[in-house]
Amino acid sequence: MSYTRKTSATQINLYNKCPFAYYIQYKLKLKQPLTFSLVKGSLTHTVLEKFYDINIRSSGITKYNYQEEFQKHILNVLETTLVEKRTRFGKDVPTYKEELKSICSDDFEYAKEISDCKKILRNFVSFYCMQLEQYLDKYGNISQAFYTSKPKFRELDLSLENFYAIADCIPKYSAKLAIDDYKSSTLYDDGFNDEHELQLLLYCYAYWKKTNEMPLIGRIIFLRYGVRCQYKFTEDRVKGCENYIDEFLEKTESDDQKMYPLNIYDKFCTCSLSEHPNGKGFKSGFTCAWQEFCNKKIEEGTVTIINREE
After folding, report:
1. Alpha helices, DSSP H, located in 19-106
2. CA torsion sign, 264 to 270 to 274 to 277?
3. 303 occurs within a structural domain
4. Range of the domain at 92
5. Domain presence at residue 9
6. What angle do CA 218, 220, 224 make, to 5 degrees?
7. CA-to-CA distance for 82 and 112, rounded, in angstroms?
C-alpha cells in the first residue's frame, strides 16, 4: 500500500481523547501555544540525549566520585543546552532560554522553572547511579561500567512510510530489548494509562518493522519521580499495529469538521460544556489549549458533541 500521509502516536492518542482537538491541531493546523510543560519537556529530553556524550576516561570521573560528578555533568549540559542555537525543519528557532523566558512573567518565575528542570535532572542522575552501581560491582572499572550501561540507542528515528516516531531510549536487558519513553510531567494516578501503553506498543511495532527485531517490553520513565511503569506485549499485539495505523489514517482522511466531534467527557476537557465529574479539568489550574476555540464553536452552535451512550 502506498501512503500520502503519516501519523504518530501523539496524533492517535489525541484523536482517541478528543477528535475535535485532533481536527483543530492537524486539520486546521492551528499552532498550540507554548506552555511550561512543552518547553521543559523538550529541554529535559535534549539534555538527557546529551548526557551520555562524555569521554568518561578524560572526564575525571572515578568509581569514588561518580555520583557527585555526574550531577555536576548533567547541570553543565543543561546550562549549555539552554543557550545553544537551534533549528527546526531547517529554520532557526529561539533557544530554550528564549522560549522559556517568553512565557515567564518575570525573572523570578524563570528561575523557578529552571530550578524545577534541575530537580528532574538530578532525580534522573540519582536513579542512573543506582543502576551504574550494579555494573561497577561487576567490572570494578568506571569506564567499562559506564559504556556497558549506555542504552543501545538514544533518540532513534523509527519513522515508517505511514508512521513517524522518535524513541527516547532503547536499552537491552540480557537478550531482551525494551523501548523507553521519558515523561517529565506529573505522575497521574498509579502511572499506568492507555495512552502510554498504546504509544509504546506502536513504538515496538515501528522498531520491529525497521530492524526485524521485536521488543516486547515498553517502559514509561517518570523523570520527576524516578518511577518506571512497565508494559509487556505479545508478538500478535505488536504485529496488529499495522492494521490499526491503516484504519486510523482511513478514518481521519476527511477534512469535514462533522467527522470530528468534541469529547466533553474527557478528564482534560475544560470547555464550557465539560462533563468530567472532577469539574473543569483533571488537575487544578489546568486549561486545555483549545478551550477558547471550542467555546466559540459551542456558542456558534457549529460543533457536534460525542454521544456518551454510543
Report:
1. 19-22, 36-51, 66-83, 96-102
2. positive
3. no
4. 53-150
5. no
6. 160
7. 15
Has residue 217 been placed in a domain? no
Question: Does residue 237 lie within any of the structural domains?
Answer: no
Say how many domains are in the chain. Answer: 1
Residues 6+ positions from 305 with CB-CB distance below 8 Å: 261, 262, 263, 264, 273
Q: What is the pLDDT along the chain (310 residues), one digit of tens a residue?
A: 666 899 999 999 999 999 999 999 999 999 888 889 899 999 999 999 999 999 999 999 999 999 999 999 999 999 999 999 998 878 899 999 999 999 999 999 999 999 999 999 999 999 999 989 999 999 999 999 999 888 877 788 999 999 999 999 887 655 678 899 998 876 655 566 889 999 999 999 999 999 999 999 999 988 888 888 899 999 999 999 999 999 999 999 999 999 999 999 998 899 999 987 655 555 556 788 899 999 999 999 999 999 876 5
